[in-house]
Amino acid sequence: MSAASALSHAVRRIRAAHATLRTSESAPAFTGGVVAAGLGLGGFAMLVLFLWVVSPFPDSGLDGALHVAADCWLLAHGGDLVRTETLSGAAAPIGVTPLLLMAFPVWLLYRAGADAVVPASDGKVARSAVAWLIGGYLAVGAGVVVYTSYGPVRSDALAAALHLPVVAALAAGAGAWAERGRPRIPLPGRLSRVTAAVTVPMREVVAVLRSAAAGVCVLVAGGAALTVVTLALHPGAAGASFTRLSEALSGRLAVLAVAVALIPNAAVWGAAYALGPGFALGTEAVVRPAGVVGEPVLPDFPLLAALPQAGPGTSLTWAALVVPVLAGVAVGWLAVDRREPCGLGRTAAHAALGGLACGIAMALLTGFAAGPLGTGALEEFGPSWWLVGGMAAGWTATAGTPTALLVRWVRVRRASAGTGSGWAEAPEAESPRTETPRTETPKAETPKAEAPESEGPESEGRATADAAPSEA
Fold it and tell me: I want to staple 212 with a disulfide (CB 3.0 to 4.6 A). Which of 245, 303, 312, 357 is the partner?
């Protein structure tokens, strides 16, 4: 086959594929992706422009403020930024994603994915609509990457190319899947044949995912509680750091906005601390319940001003290990189906799989919540995703499996006790009432029916005896 014929064949296939997708479905989906990206950029631009307007002495003009808004939008998707103007002259990466900022574009993509599949007639059309939606979103993202490729804080094109499509596909796909009633996801041919041989009821899958979500919520809530307790015990250090960073009102508002955006990150760091691995504050310092090892390199920031000092751990720091135990109990409690408990083996498997899913989720959260803040000592900043994920899976599975077995035993015992006392006694109490009329009715009717038969000969005898004297 010549090159010309191969090219013409490819062109015909592209035209045929394009003809199978109606314009009325592709255009709104593509536009929805563009609108979702534009709304996200607009939200970040409004916040940055507000701080730029109230600042008495802004360092840059309008272009610089819009550049910062675009940088924040990319950072909210997990993309890294690079600072070019540093004291050492070397470029310094910024790899910590504010999780609160990430919630805004994820929510927009989720809603856009749900709206894109509303007019879809079948699954194929819905998947095509989601693909066009993601394409429109990534088209805007590519323009943002080009726009932020220069300046004192520029974007990392490779990190944006790796994170932006993944976040867009997961968020938009989740919204479309939920909107269509959570149908079964089609798998490739070989994988579908393998999974077809394994039949798992949907209620068991829901139990595993529910238990994993409960474990993640308990870990993050426990980490947030540890952060609040630490800040409450050292209010002066956090307040002094807040006032040192800026004297102007606009500067303090900016510091407050950054601190609020990093509160979920602090909760994840607290969960990593409670799990045992802790988190790194530089390449030579680690903070964990066992103590602070090394000399931490701490940027001047309110959320970092109240960390414990170097030295061994105390009974108060070791008490943080209660958090993963409670997370394991939550996993085990929700791994048991309330309506129909499974066998011992499947119950233990549900708890173990719930712990594994909890570990995977915590690893993903930690990967976004931590990252480098520079070079040298600040190259490692935050918890390690694989250590946190492994410890979360180990803690929740170890504490969740016996909890699930205990909960199953209690519920089965209560159900059997209720069946033996209530469900078995109720028919016994009602049976005499229903059978009594049936047994007593013949007894009551028999005398009435037999009375004439028994009294008949006696009456005839009396009549004969009475008639004999009269005849005589």
Answer: 357
**Which H/E stretch holds residue 83?**
strand 81-83
Task: Give the CA angle between residues 134, 139, 145 to the nearest 5°.
Answer: 120
Q: What is the DSSP string of 92-123?
A: EEE----HHHHHHHHHHHHHHHHHHTTT--SH
Q: What pLDDT shows up at residue 415? A: 81
On the 0-12 / 13-18 / 19+ scale of CB atoms within 10 A, 464 is exposed
Taking the C-alpha atoms of residue 304 and residue 281, their distance in angstroms, rounded to an integer, is 10
The rounded distance, in Å, linking the Cα atoms of 147 and 45 is: 14
- For 208-281, list the strands marked E by DSSP: 279-281
- The alpha carbon of residue 471 and the mean position of all alpha carbons in its chain are separated, in whole angstroms, by 111
Instruction: Render pLDDT for 341-389 as a digit per residue (tens, 0 to 9).
Output: 788 899 999 999 999 999 999 999 999 999 998 887 788 899 999 999 9
Query: For position 235, what pLDDT does the model report?
Result: 79
Quick check: 208 and 335 in contact, CB under 8 A? yes
Q: Classify burial at 338, counting beta carbons within 10 Å of its beta carbon; exposed 0-12, middle 13-18, buried 19 or more.
A: exposed
**Residue 169 pLDDT:** 96
Q: Averaged over 196-216, what is the pLDDT?
A: 81
Q: Which two tokens stand for residue 434?
A: 């229903």
Q: Which residues of 195-227 are buried (b: 16+ CB within 10 A; e: fewer)?
A: eeeeeeeeebeebbebbbbbbbebbbbbbbebb
Taking a C-beta distance cutoff of 8 angstroms, is the pair 267, 223 a contact? yes
CB 211 within 8 A of CB 335: yes
**DSSP secondary structure code for residue 335 in this structure:** T
Handedness of CA 238, 244, 247, 252 (dihedral sign): negative
Q: Are 278 and 384 in contact (CB under 8 A)?
A: no
Distance between CA atoms of 82 and 88, rounded to whole angstroms?
14
Contact yes or no for 148/77 (Cβ under 8 A) = no
Count of residues making up the chain = 472
Residue 276: Cβ within 10 Å count: 18
For residue 32, what pLDDT band results from cuts at 50, 70 and 90?
very high
Secondary element (H or E) of residue 154 = strand 153-155
